[in-house]
Every structure is written in C-alpha cells, then in structure tokens.
Write a structure and sequence with these properties.
It contains 39 helices and 21 strands. It is α+β, with helices and mostly antiparallel strands. α4 packs across α7, α6 packs across α8 and α28 crosses α29.
C-alpha cells in the first residue's frame, strides 16, 4: 500500500515544504522508513525544529508524481491540500511538470496513465470508458455495478481488505489490461471459473468480493492450479449456504476437497473432510455412522473393517428398530461437532469403553463423550484404540490357523466369526498346509539317511551325482497353467535349498502392493525365471501369495500401518514442545497460560494477595485451601485482551454465538406459520359430517326394520306386514303381543344391519370401511395434517417429520450453550462491543502504534530471582517493545467509568492504579524483565463510550511500587522461614474518631 507524507516547514524557518512517499505493508513500517529517510536528509521534526511532524495524506493521482522514496521540495509549489487536509489539488495558475514515473503503468495495483494504455495497444482498437470529458480526468469515479461483469469481478479481485463500489479511470484502464492479459493464468482461470456459473452475475459487490477472496485463499497466486478444480470449487461455493462457505473455503485451502458441508443434527459442522481409517471410496455420512454405532453396541468382538454378513444385518435391524442403547448413542453422537472426522476405531472404542448405566442420562453421556472422544491420527488408530474397540484382524486369525496347521494341528479351524471370503480362503489355506506337511514315514526315512523329496537337502555332496562345474543345456519344463521353467539357463550353481524361493512366477493381481515382503528377492545364484527350489516345509507366504493376494496385501498393510503409526507416535513425542517442570531464570516465549500459571516463582498477583494478608496468601498459594475457579461467564477484559493483542487465538479460548441462518425457525409463530402453510397444501380430508352423510345414505338404501310397536294394535299391524313365511302363528291360535314380537324380531334379524352414524371421526371411518373400503383406502393414503397444538417441542418434532433438514434457532443456540469444549461463550452483542473497543484502540494515535508495532512481543514470560530474599519470581507483561535498546512494557486494562466527570477522571485513574496495585506490578515487571519504561493502556468498556487513556508510570510511582514490592517479598520470605502467616488484624484496639467525625461531634455539642 502507498503512504504519502507531507513534511511541512515552520513559518519562521523560511524553508520549503517537502513530500515523500513509499510502498509498505503497514503504516508502522512506513513510519519507520520515514524516520530513516528524514534522518538521512538531515531533517528534524517536532516542537522547536524547522519542520513539523509528518502528515499523512491521500495518495495523489498525477503524472508528475515524484519518484518513490525521494524527498521532493517542488511538489508543494504546484499542488496544495484541500479543505479536508488530505486531498491534493493543482494550484490555480500552475501546470503539472513535464515528466512522469516510468513504472506507473505496471499491472501491480498502481495507476495507469491513459496514454500509456493506448501505446500498449499498439494500434489496436482502444476501449473508451464513459464520456470523452472523463478520459483525462484521473479523479473521476465510476460505479462498478454499471461495468461489464468481468470488470466487476476483477475490481473485487484487486480489492484487498473489502469490496469496492467505485473505481477511478486509471484503475478501470488497469482492469482492462488485466482482462486482456492472456499470460496471466490466475486471472484467466478465475474468469473462466466464474463464467461457468451464470447465476453469479446477479451477485452484488460484497458477495462478488467474498467469492474472489475465497478463490485467493484456496488458489494462492504463485502456484499453478488446475482449471477443473477452480470450476469445481466455484460451483460448490455457489451451491453452498452462505453460513457454510467459510468451512468449505477452509477445507479446500487445507487440501480437503470436500463436495459438501455436512451438518450434525444440532446444525453444527459434522466434518468428514479429512482422511480416516475407512476405505477412501467409502462415503461416510451420519447414516453410516448410525450403522457403526449399532455395530459397536453389539457384545461380540469382530473385524471392524470387514463385518461378517450376519452381524451387519443385525446392526441394520438395530438401526431400523431404534433399540437401546443405540438410540441414546446415536442421538448424542449425531449432535457432536466434527463427529465424521473421527476414525471407526475411535467410535468403537468410545462406545465399548463406556459403562452401561451412562446412556439413560444425556448430560452424563455428553460429558463422557467430550472427555474421551480424542484422537491424534484419524487415519491410523493406535494399537490401544484398536484393542479398546474389540478389533480382531481377520487376516491375523487366518494366518494363525495356517501356522497351527503347519505345526501339526489337524483339526478344523474356527473361522466362523470371520467374513465369508476369509472363511473360504482360510479353510483352503489350512487344507493346503495340512496336505503339504510330510508324514511320519517320510520323516523316519530321512532320519535313517535315505533321500526323501522335500525333506533331504539336494545340495548335500552325498546326493550330487553330476559335475556342477560343467554348464548344463537349458531344459524347458511345462509347469501347467501356462507357466514354463527353463532349467540350466544360468551357469551358476544352484542356490541353497534352505533359502526361501522367489515369487517371480506367481500370478498376482497387478494392483496388489505385495513386493519384497513375499520373498520376491532373487538370490545371487538363480535367475528371475527359475522356479522356486524345494523346501523342507510349506512356505506360508508363498501359499498366501498364490491363493489369496487380497489377504496377503491386507496383512502387509496392517503390518506397515502399525509400524508407521509407531514411528509417527515417536515423531509426535519428539516434536511436541516439552516445557520444563522447573523454569530457570530467563526469557520464555509462547508459554501456554496453564503452564505459566502452574510454573515455579512468585507472580505479581501472588504479591498482591500477600498485601491483602499473609494468612490469605498462605491459603491461596501454600496450603491451597482457597481455590480460585475460573468462571465460564465472559470477562469483557479477557475478550478485549485477546482481540487487541492476540486476535489469532480468539477461537481457542472463546466460542462465538453462531449466526442464525436465513430461513431458520426462530419463534413459535414461524413454526406455526410453516405448519399452517403445509397443512393448507395437503389434499382435503373427509370431515366427520361427510362420513356421516355417506353412512346415512347407505342406511337409507337398506330395507326398513319393522317396528315392534308400543301397543297390541301397532304390533299386530307390524306382524301383518311380515312376509308369509315369518307369520308363524297358526290359524286358530291367539295372536298375543309376545308371539307377534318374536316373529317381528326374527324377520328383522334377517335384514342387513345398519351402520352406526355417531361417534368420533375414526369410529365413523371404521363404519365407512365396511361399506366402502376403497374410499377409506384412498383416505388413508392422503398425508395427515400436522398438529397445530401442543408444546413448542411437539411442534418442532412435527416440522422435522416433514422437513428433516429444518434448522431451529433454539436448537442451534442450545448446542452452542452446551459448550462441549468448555470455552467462554460470547454473544453477538458482547462481540460487537469488544470489536468496537478493538477498533477504538487501533485507531488511537498512541495505542494503535503500541499494539501494532512491528517489534512488539505479546505475553512473554520472565523468570528470575529476587536479589534481597532469594525467592523465585515470574512476570508476564501484556506487551513489550524493543526500540533499539529502549525496552518498553505495557499493560492493557479495561475500566468502566461512564459516570466520572472529566475534571475528576485523572484522580479516579490514579486511585485505580494505587488501589489495584498496578504500580507494584509495573515495578516488578521493570525489575524482572529489565524494562526502561512502562505504560498502561486504559480503555473504557461501556457501550458506545470507548475513550482511551495512555498513562506512563513515572519514576516516583515506580519507586513507590518497588518499595511496596520489597516489603511484601520480605514478609513472604519471613512466612516461609517461620511458618507463621498472620491474619490481617492481630491486636485488639479501640475505635477512635477521625478528624471529620470529631468536627461533627463538636458541631452537635454546640447544637445540644
């Protein structure tokens, strides 16, 4: 960035004003270089000097700009500052000089002259921008949003810190040159990647700048990147939600080219971008995690990387039925941030090491997961983790069975717990080993001195019947399976039969990495095509390579993995910074907080505790009966301290409240509105009245029941209406009411029964199913409306049943408040206040220079010995700056003094320093860390009222602090020597009136 300074001469000096400019990374570097330039030119600035302090102005855009780093005295003769004190303008009646800097047209971010651009075109048709009246006006600004898309894209790409809305005419011409520069692969690839996303042309300037900024992080300049990768990232970035684009960019920048950002059930990042112990072609999601959880809850041990089919089926059944304890583990782990980053072995070990009584209690289960789900290398679990996971290597079990068969075991191997392929191959290997094992008769014959094929040594002199010194004619022998052996091709003697044979003639898959480990080395006396020599026992490795290359590769992979893992553990132990248990006197950088506070030596805080009372000091730091527990509640001072001094470590200590994504459900009203909208879009269900109408219409079609009647006449009328076969009363018999009613009932029983037309909707549906089952079946296929009543949790579950990917603000914030990492929670309001304080500090003319000084050091630890008492001491100033031998220390303090009047503010700050023993700490810092000066940076933390006071500790104040420090150290040393730690008050005393109370007493006596 360019920094332009005016060095204005005082009026009485009579000298000319001067200007100078340079390009630097920061203003602090520019000021340091400016001091050097002024010293070289013999210019002194400040009070009483010929020149005033340098004034930084806006960078002027003129052709006659002086050369970089040159002190120019003629500039101010032609140009003058405007009313704002920053903008340069040509003086009336003056004309620019007839020269300009040759490198002003470089495509490095500097401004390009219009004439230079025209010359570069070499006669080609030039592009004009805007009206002709602006072609020579370098101060005219143009709206970026009105330019072509490529110009918009490159304008944001050239912007460093934030997006731009307007650019000048030279800047626009520079973008044109950059767009046409076909040799600039970075820019051309960016344009091509953006052109593959038509929707990106609808983006506004801030969103376009974020896109270019993400591309610069993922594809840094200076390296050649594949165009396909750029296009892939651009499409993924556009398709990813805005809240997750930072995660996508971070993963791609670290080399994990993830295709999407997976979320946990709580809405946090689920991970899955790093390499684990799973197959690289295996897509690991939350659903596959459920299967692994179900497998881990099963009691038996098995190969966790090759599940037996029966066990895998049982695991899927557990997931489908949501059996316990699977459902408790699944609910907890699916909400764990980054859960997909952990290896399968870590998941198994976590579940199998837990006690069975922890799963019914979600809080205890969450605490157990937070405490035990740790892993160093996700792609290479340690042997301890595999043992805890209950892992049984199928390859190792198979090899053990083969070894037993070779040693004489004739039993059937127990391979039923292995996967099917390992069972088949293992059984075949065992049979082959048992078949090739020599029998007892052969062994006895060999012991009697007879030659036995496969047991006796064929190279023994007593068995050789030919002259091995004479060359043999090559003999070709068919070995079967398309394999041939050429004997006698090499003139060297045959190798010792006890050496292991080669596998150069073993047919293997091309992709198996079975090399030297399978006896592939060729000994000095045998050819590459010579068949392996006979051995006295079965070559287990040869059998594996011939029969089961997959199994062999698996065994070797396991051995190499374990060896590599042990080497990596040793390297990690060596690389880990080992802080000493005892710190010798000296200066130490980057000591973690927990190490420093637990280290040897008396700190300034401990000295302050001793000034409270030695009794309190002993309880806090000797017997430690008083424990100071860190509160999880945010301390604004700590947050400001982190932002101002160590912003890069903000995320390690604080957890920022997550942003609520657009479209998330925030209140009950938004949930209810979604449910209403969903229900309104469903097919209309039959109401109870509609069903009742169908039932009544059906009943109306049925024959009417004959009434029994309330009198003999009505009963008789009903009886006479019956069909003849139901009039059972014979002629001559008396027609009694009872007999007639019996006949009527008999007739009514033969009629179809009417359906019920009363009851609930479900009861009416059951009746309708009797008469119209098809209609009821159609009704059952319709989606049921969601419930609109109940608690908020019930409504959330209803929404999740139809929209599983719905995000709820309450759940997102609850997951943040659970705080599994134990960090300090920071809300948006608190962070906003802290950022405002940070901005005020950095913009302050003095505080900003101290906090951003290039030679600053933060949180440096010093250990030393107190010369008077011999006690060990340690200090840790917030900030130290070494300026050419002058060592400056500073402490950043946040205060709340919104209601203190301006006239009494200095007195209040003085009391703050004395009452909190800040002067004592400063004296201790200067003594132990050898500081020459010490400052306090006080900043008021009340919202929207962030004033700053820079206070230097005077020599008298440091002397007072030093004397009080010495007194406290002597008292501490005496306590350690005698073992006596007196209370703050040890003697009885009588309360006396002070001067004010005496005057009150006298006044009251007069009135009495």
């Amino acid at each position: 960035m360019e920094y332009f300074y005016l060095i204005k001469a005082t009026q009485k000096s009579g000298k000319a004003d001067a200007v100078i400019w340079r390009t630097n990374k920061s203003e602090a570097r520019a000021l340091l270089q400016l001091d050097v330039d002024l010293e070289d030119a013999g210019i002194e600035t400040g009070r009483g000097k010929d020149y005033q302090k340098p004034i930084r102005t806006d960078f002027p855009v003129f052709n006659d700009l002086p050369a970089e780093g040159v002190l120019d005295y003629s500039w101010c003769e032609r140009y003058q500052l405007g009313d704002d004190g920053r903008t340069w303008a040509l003086k009336p009646g003056q004309a620019p000089a007839n020269h300009h800097i040759d490198d002003a047209g470089a495509v490095s971010g500097d401004l390009v002259d219009a004439n230079t651009t025209g010359d570069a075109a070499q006669g080609e048709t030039g592009e004009t921008f805007g009206s002709d009246e602006y072609q020579d006006d370098s101060s005219a600004l143009f709206n970026v949003a009105e330019l072509p898309f490529r110009a918009q894209l490159l304008a944001q790409y050239m912007a460093e810190e934030r997006h731009v809305y307007h650019i000048s005419m030279p800047h626009r011409q520079e973008l044109s040159v950059l767009e046409m520069d076909t040799d600039n692969a970075v820019v051309q690839d960016l344009i091509l990647a953006a052109e593959n996303i038509p929707e990106i042309k609808k983006y506004d300037m801030p969103a376009l700048w974020k896109f270019t900024s993400a591309n610069k992080k993922v594809f840094p300049e200076g390296k050649r990147h594949e165009l396909g990768k750029r296009i892939q990232f651009a499409k993924l970035w556009f398709a990813t939600n805005a809240i997750d684009r930072g995660i996508l960019t971070r993963e791609w920048a670290s080399g994990n080219c993830i295709s999407s950002v997976m979320k946990t059930d709580a809405g946090t990042n689920a991970g899955g971008g790093n390499k684990t112990d799973r197959n690289p072609d295996y897509t690991h999601t939350l659903d596959t995690l459920d299967v692994e959880i179900a497998l881990a809850t099963m009691p038996m041990d098995f190969d966790i990387y090759n599940f037996p089919a029966s066990i895998h089926r049982r695991a899927k059944e557990i997931v489908q039925k949501k059996e316990s304890p699977f459902k408790e583990w699944s609910a907890a782990l699916r909400k764990t941030p980054g859960i997909l980053d952990y290896s399968r072995a870590a998941i198994f070990a976590l579940i199998r090491e837990a006690s069975s009584g922890i799963t019914p209690f979600p809080d205890r289960l969450r605490g157990y997961i937070n405490a035990n789900l740790t892993e160093h290398k996700h792609d290479a679990p340690s042997p301890e983790t595999l043992a805890k996971a209950g892992h049984i290597s199928s390859a190792a079990v198979t090899l053990e069975a083969v070894k037993k068969a070779i040693d004489g075991d004739e039993g059937v191997p127990d391979l039923e717990t292995l996967p099917t392929d390992f069972q088949v191959i293992g059984t075949e290997l065992v049979k082959e080993a048992q078949k090739k094992r020599p029998d007892a008769n052969q062994v006895l014959a060999a012991e009697r001195g007879e030659y036995v094929e496969g047991i006796s040594d064929p190279t023994d002199p007593k068995w050789i019947t030919e002259d091995l010194t004479k060359p043999r004619s090559p003999e070709i022998a068919n070995l079967g399976g398309g394999m041939f052996s050429i004997e006698g091709l090499m003139t060297s003697p045959a190798t010792n039969a006890t050496e292991e044979g080669t596998t150069s003639n073993v047919q293997m898959e091309a992709d198996q990495s079975v090399k030297n480990e399978i006896d592939s080395s060729v000994s000095a006396g045998e050819g590459a095509d010579e068949p392996p020599a006979q051995t006295t026992a079965v070559n287990m490795k040869k059998i594996l390579a011939e029969r089961c290359p997959d199994l062999t590769a698996e065994v070797l992979k396991s051995q190499v993995s374990e060896s590599a893992h042990s080497d990596e553990e040793e390297e990690a132990e060596q690389a880990a910074p080992a802080w000493p248990e005892y710190f010798e006197p000296g200066r130490y950088e980057c000591v973690p907080n927990e190490i420093y506070h637990a280290a040897n030596g008396i700190s300034s805080t401990m000295v302050k505790d001793a000034r409270v009372s030695l009794m309190y000091f002993e309880a806090r730091h000797v017997s430690k009966t008083i424990q100071k527990v860190r509160s999880p509640v945010l301390d604004m001072g700590n947050l400001v301290h982190a932002l101002a001094l160590q912003p890069e470590q903000l995320e390690t200590e604080f957890s920022i409240e997550p942003e609520i994504p657009e479209g998330a459900f925030t209140t009950t009203a938004t949930i209810r509105a979604f449910i209403d909208e969903y229900n309104n879009g469903l097919p209309v269900l039959l109401s109870a009245d509609d069903i009742k109408r169908f039932l009544e219409e059906y009943n109306a079609t049925l024959p009417a029941q004959v009434p029994l009647g309330t009198s003999v006449e009505e009963t008789g009328q009903g009886y006479m209406s019956l069909p003849a076969e139901f009039q059972r009363i014979e002629d001559g018999q008396k027609q009694t009411a009872t007999a007639m009613k019996a006949c009527i009932k008999e007739y009514n029983a033969t009629l179809p029964a009417q359906v019920k037309t009363s009851g609930s909707r479900d009861a009416l549906l059951e009746q309708l199913a009797i008469i119209n089952p098809d209609l009821v079946a159609q009704e059952a296929q319709k989606a049921q409306p969601l419930k609109v009543s109940g608690t908020k949790a019930d409504l959330i579950q209803s929404v999740k049943s139809v929209k599983p990917d719905a995000v709820f603000a309450d759940e997102l914030l609850d997951a943040w408040r659970e705080n599994p990492e134990g960090k300090v929670l920071v809300t948006h309001q608190q962070l906003s206040t802290a950022l405002a304080i940070q901005k005020a500090l950095l913009n302050h003319p003095t505080a900003g220079k101290l906090l951003t000084h290039p030679s600053r050091a933060v949180e440096v630890s010093y250990f030393g010995i107190d010369e008077e008492t011999g006690l060990e001491v340690r200090v840790r100033p917030d900030l130290e700056i070494d300026m050419g031998g002058l060592r400056i220390g500073a402490d950043l303090k946040t205060i709340s003094m919104w209601n203190i009047k301006q006239e009494g503010l200095r007195a209040k700050l003085h009391r703050e320093i004395i009452e909190r023993d800040y002067h004592l700490s400063a004296a201790m810092y200067c003594e132990t860390a050898a500081l020459d000066q010490f400052f306090w940076i006080f900043v008021n933390k009340d919202e929207n009222y962030h004033w700053i006071a820079i206070i230097e500790a005077s020599e008298e104040l440091l002397e007072l602090g030093m004397l009080e420090y010495r007194k406290a150290m002597r008292a501490i040393a005496n306590g350690f020597d005698t073992g006596e730690w007196p209370a703050p008050i040890t003697e009885d005393y009588a309360e006396e009136l002070n001067d004010f109370d005496v005057r009150r007493l006298e006044a009251l006596r007069v009135q009495a």
